[in-house]
Every structure is written in structure tokens, then in C-alpha cells.
Amino acid sequence: MNAKYVNPFLKAVEHVLGQFGIVDITKKSLQTKEDMSIESDVTAFVGVVGDIRGNVAYAFSEETAKKLASAMMMGMPVEALNDMTRSALAELSNMFTGNAAAIFESEKCHLDITPPSLVVGEEVLFVLSFFQTLTVSIDTAIGTIDIHIGLEV
Amino acid sequence: MESTKTLLKDMTGIDIVKMSVPTEQVGEVDSMGVCTTITFAGKCKGRFMIDMPPELALAMVSNMSGEKMDSIKYKLFLAGIAEMNNIIAGDANTVLNNQYALGLRLAPPIVFTGKNMIVATAKMDAVFIEASTELGPIKINIAFEGGIEV
Amino acid sequence: MSKRVLIVDDSPMIHNMLRKTLEGNGYEVCADASNGREGVHLYEKLQPDIVFMDITMPIMDGIEAVKCIKDKYKEAKIIMLTAMGDEEIMSQAEEAGVDIFLKKPFNDFKIISAIANIV
Questions:
Q1: How many domains does chain B contain in total?
Q2: What residues of chain A lie within 8 A of the CB of C12, using their CB?
């Protein structure tokens, strides 16, 4: 997969996080994996269909998840993840991907996004794609977010 | 639903003993250990999800591939679960597209395994059907954005 | 000599299952490809007697791959084997020149009778 597919997702995440007051975002690393498995506390994912088909997942630690949820709810403290915060984080992955799709659209690539889901649990092994994927890690003030991109291109 | 039952039997040789009526799923889903989802978009959007305990999942894929599987972390096992979902969702989708012209397109299958997993969504209503087999329960959960009529 | 078959499908599970069915019935699987482009490439290199082709695959989908193969090799025998089978897709497959359209799941009988129909 070409790295040009990464930028729209990066821009989208940066833009959406900025709206919740999370700035100072730095790209940490970019790596390619032959097939993608993710092991992390919290993983939110969204599918894409249209000119490109695939899945995108956003993974973070529980700590970061709580801070993200808190930022989304105007800074309301989040002690533990509950159904409301989980739903909010699923919605966040929807916003990330929706924004990325808008960027792709402006580059004449039409994408429809599918409904978001979020998975939490213990010893979770998550397979997003059986095809090659790209993972971008970004550092933010509230912790690391891994963006896993599994597009069939 | 009927298609799911026949397909499962054809593919995995596992009989569904009993099937519940479609029941409304409120809120999140507690996974039994092995879960696979296929999301779709077109004139409407949604998610098709199959959830089951590891023992049943291993038995299904072993039967399907003719190869004994004993680890849920084995790549071929995960690929088998994904392909099984692909076939079932693909079939259901064919019916929906032909009958209601929804123009649905499927995203690739996702598989995840783990303990005490919770699967959440944003703003989707779902129905689920629980079926029992001799090796444990299997839950099929279908969600559409904007809800569905049971 | 036994007929040589090329399998093009992105699922390793399908490779295994089809291989078992085919080899159990006296066919030789000459290669597995996991996307359309690899499939076209292997067709040119190996010139198999029969191709089993999935549709939804990364890099190049099955419809595109069938077009590429049939453009150059009119005599190619291609069986589409896929989970998706709505009318739109079936007509695209027909236009591309697919010889037989099969829906997953499959069993030995379905596979063997499809082959018998085209060779």
C-alpha cells in the first residue's frame, strides 16, 4: 500500500482532535505489516467501501481512551470507561474516518464509510486485515494513538 | 436467517439445534470470545456480527478446512472465521441487494478474540438471534443505522 | 495428464479447501494467487486449463482479472467462485467473460460438476 493513503487519515485525526482542544500532535513512526493484528486496550474501527475497500482502526491505551472521552465531553472527568464513553469513542472513530473520506473525495476518490464499532477486553487479538497494512503512531498530549490502515490497494 | 442456518450446516457440518426468535439488542454486546464483523454501506449502513465461544469456533473451522485447529491465535483459524463470515454476509447481502436494491457493499471481515470483550457502537440499533449447537451457542447480531423492524 | 488448475482467492482458507477438493478428484493445483494481479501474472506464466477466481480481492479484483486474461486468451476457462452474487455483479462477471458463476459455500459436487461443464 502506498504511503499517500496515510496522509488523509493523519490530517483528519489532527483536525478532529484539534476541535477537542488536543493539539501538539507529532508523528512518531510509520510501519508496514504483512497482516494486521493489533493488541491494545481499546480499538475502534470503521470500514470503507467505494473506490477503495478496507478497514481502519484507531487503537489506544485505556488511559488515553479516558482522556479522549473526557476531551470530547468538554473536559468532564472520566474515571472509567462505561457504555456512554465507549459509544463516544466509537463516534470519534467515525469522525476521524468521515473527515478522511472528505479529503479523499476532494482528490476524486469516492469512499463511503460504514458504522463504527469499538472493542475493549483482555488479551484481545484483533485482526483488521489479512492483507498488508500501514500503522502510524502519533504522540499527543494525552498519549499515543495508533492509526492502523488496512486498505485493499 | 434461514440462509445462515443452511450455510453453517453446509460449511461446518455443525447442526443448529435451536434458534431463538429475533430479539432486540439494546446497548453493547458482551462477546463470548471469538467475534467477527463485516460492516457495509450503500443506501443504508450497518454491521453483521457473529459471536461464539472459542470451542465452537475451533470446531467449525476445523470441520471446514479438514485440518484440526487448537489455537485461536493461529492465522489460518482467524482467516477461516473471516471467510465463514464473508460467505454468510455475502449471501445475505445478495438477497438484500436483489430484493430491495440497496446497493450494499461489504467492507472486509474483521476478527477479534479475547476475554471479557465488550463491543460497542455509536447510535445503532440491532437485533440478535441466538442459536444453540451441540458445541455451544452462536449469536448473530445484525445492526442497521437508524434501526430495523423486528 | 491431469488438468491443471489455478486458484485465485484472497483467503488462505479457500486455497486449502479448494486444493483438497480438486486434488481429491484427480486435478492438479498448479498455483494459488491471492489477488487479481498475481492471478493474471500466474495465468500467463503457467497457462493452466482452469481458473477459479474470487471477486473481492485486494490490488485487482476478480472481474478486472478475468477481463485481462480473456482479452489475451479467449480460450481461458474461468469459474467465478464468490460470496457476493447480486444481479449487478453477475452481469459484470458475464460481460467480463466468466464461463461459470458459482456461489460460496461450495462442496465437491458443485466444483466437480462445474469443471465437467466447461472442459
A1: 1
A2: 130
How many angstroms away from the CA of C55 is the closest CA of chain B? 11
Contact status, residue B134 vs residue B23, Cβ threshold 8 Å: no
Residues in chain C closer than 8 A to B65 (CB atoms): 13, 16-17
| Count of alpha carbons within 13 angstroms of residue A41, beta-carbon side | 13
Residue B84 lies in a domain: yes
pTM of the model: 0.86
Q: Each residue of B60-80: pLDDT tens digit?
A: 999 888 888 889 888 889 999
Nearest-by-CA chain A residue for B79 = A130
The predicted-structure confidence for C95-109, as pLDDT tens digits, reads as follows 999 999 998 888 888
- What's the pLDDT score for residue B22? 85
Mutate to test the interface with B, among C82, C102, C104, C110 (most CBs of B within 10 A): C104
Give the domain ranges of chain A.
Answer: 3-151
Which domain CATH number covers B83? 3.40.1550.10
ipTM for the assembly: 0.90
Task: Please check whether residue A103 is in contact with residue A110, taking contact to mean a CB–CB distance below 8 angstroms.
Answer: no
Provide the residue range defining the domain that includes C97.
4-118
What the block records as the C-alpha cell of A31 is: 510501519
Return the CA Rg of chain C. Answer: 13
The reply to whether C58 touches chain A by the CB within 8 Å rule is: yes
Q: CATH class for domain A3-151?
A: alpha beta
